[in-house]
Predict the 3D structure of the following.
Amino acid sequence: MAFDPYAQMNVSDPYGTSPSQRLAAALANTTYQTQGINRNLNTNLFDMSKAYKKQVPNIVGQFSRRGLETSGMKNKALAEAAAMYERQRTQQRQATQDALMQLALQNMSAYGTYAGERFGSTLGATEQRAATAAQIREALA
């Protein structure tokens, strides 16, 4: 009677009835989101690299048509295009790192909630045993 394994059950949610099931569901959700974030990063980086590879011949062609293929202006335009490409890649990676950090914080929160629920359950069982022991001592006295 002192230990109630169903004290922390959430009967209104059929998919997360115990603290460990709720933790598993939260971790599975963040794992799925992490995979999606990484997939989006790889897709975006691929698309940006394709766009950059298409842009370079256009830049070279424009300067060649004008007879400026040996000028420093062509090199400057190529350098600016490369800088823009790297800036976009860096921004994509930073956004991905921020999103992954948020997911790591969600994982930590899920672990904290789980530990709190388990501690509360254990503490409640201990309090109940102490109350029962006091009743038994009172009855024997």
The radius of gyration is 30 Å. The CA atoms of residues 2 and 130 lie 9 Å apart. Residues 25-140 form one domain. The chain has two helices and no strands.
